[in-house]
From TrEMBL:
Belongs to the UDPGP type 2 family. Residues 303-322 are annotated as: Disordered. It catalyses: alpha-D-glucose 1-phosphate + UTP + H(+) = UDP-alpha-D-glucose + diphosphate. Pfam families: NTP_transferase. GO terms for molecular function: UTP:glucose-1-phosphate uridylyltransferase activity. It is an enzyme of class 2 (transferase). InterPro entries: GalU_uridylyltTrfase_bac/arc (IPR005771), NTP_transferase_dom (IPR005835), Nucleotide-diphossugar_trans (IPR029044). This is UTP--glucose-1-phosphate uridylyltransferase. Residues 11-278 form the Nucleotidyl transferase domain. It comes from Flexivirga oryzae. One of its GO terms (biological process) is UDP-alpha-D-glucose metabolic process. PANTHER family: UTP--GLUCOSE-1-PHOSPHATE URIDYLYLTRANSFERASE. The lineage of its organism: Bacteria, Bacillati, Actinomycetota, Actinomycetes, Micrococcales.
């Protein structure tokens, strides 16, 4: 892996073409990226993260029925005028914020052929410079500068950079997984990625380091993706292309470095994790966090909070049948 100086990560790609089947029927007519997390859609957290890292040129790779994403990052003149007439400056600022987050572009993936194909579809827009890829299922706390660290790492080592996070061994089969080794003289949070496997079989994972949804990629990844065939699930996997880059560190743009993240990550990938993310962010909200935390603390000790109905032995699970 060769050192690369003066690289500038100026563009980000956000794949947003998924159908959101785990959240049906909520996502039948609403893109999963537009589901609210407390008081703004999940996708806005991701765009704000890119902005904080100094990346203002953002391409969203979407699919059919995703026009709500474009509407959200556009101006809503009628709504703004109504708020101006009411002199509701607070809500006016909130509405305008999403339209003022960088320069957001949109392209359609066309066919749902996987994350690797979604990234490949961004080739013309990205060009020949390193770029970031941010997945919307993972929200990174604004107090943690993961993406900034990854951009810095790509500038130091070249190649591509993936975000890694330790997960329990009984959960690693749900993620892409990395086999890693130490980098001489590097800080503890940096590792060399030697191999990657997408959702390894239980008991066969090379480590407990999961790939979470942040990447900084060399533009040479496009050439690799162009000849990467369908992998797990019959889709073109970004992990497979990164494996080739990791195993060929001396090729232009080759080599993969891992940033081991130990900060605050909010997983919105399935219903239970989405609810956990909602609560974790709600108790920190500047407007009502302390009130919500106090209510939650009291409520959890009630019969309802324990899932029991007064005067019966039924729990919510028994009663509701969900």
């Amino acid at each position: 892996m060769t050192t690369q100086g003066n690289s500038a990560v100026l563009k980000a790609v956000i794949p947003a073409a998924g159908l959101g089947t785990r959240f049906l029927p909520s996502t039948k007519a609403i893109p999963k990226e537009m589901l609210p997390v407390v008081d703004k859609p999940a996708i806005q957290y991701v765009v704000e993260e890119a902005e904080r890292a100094g990346i203002h040129d953002i391409l969203m790779v979407t699919g059919r029925n995703k026009t709500a994403l474009e509407d959200h990052f556009d101006r809503h003149w009628e709504l703004e005028q109504a708020l101006e007439r009411k002199d509701d400056q607070l809500r006016l600022r909130r509405v305008r914020k999403s339209a003022n987050l960088g320069n957001v572009h949109f392209i359609r993936q066309g066919e749902p052929l996987g994350l690797g194909h979604a990234v490949l579809s961004a080739r013309t827009h990205v060009g020949d410079s390193p770029f970031a890829v941010l997945l919307g299922d993972d929200l990174i706390d604004e107090r943690d500068q993961l993406l900034e660290r990854m951009v810095q790492t790509q500038d130091m080592y070249g190649g591509s950079v993936v975000a890694l996070m330790e997960v329990p061994e009984d959960q690693i089969h749900l993620y892409g997984c990395a086999a890693v080794s130490a980098i001489p003289d590097a800080t503890d949070d940096l590792v060399r990625v030697n191999s990657l496997v997408e959702k390894p079989a239980i008991g066969e994972a090379p480590s407990n380091l999961a790939i979470i949804g942040r990447y900084v990629l060399s533009p040479q990844i496009f050439d690799v993706l162009a000849h990467t065939g369908p992998g797990r699930g019959g889709e073109i996997q970004l992990t497979d292309a990164l494996l080739e880059m990791a195993q060929n560190p001396d090729r232009p743009g080759g080599g993969v470095t891992g940033v081991v993240f130990s900060g605050r990550r909010y997983d919105t990938g399935d219903r239970l994790d989405y609810l956990k993310a909602m609560v974790r962010l709600a108790v920190r909200h500047r407007d009502f966090g302390s009130d919500f935390r106090a209510w939650l603390t009291d409520w959890i000790d009630t019969d309802e909070g324990r899932g029991r109905h007064p005067g019966t032995d039924e729990t919510d699970g028994d009663h509701l049948g969900h």
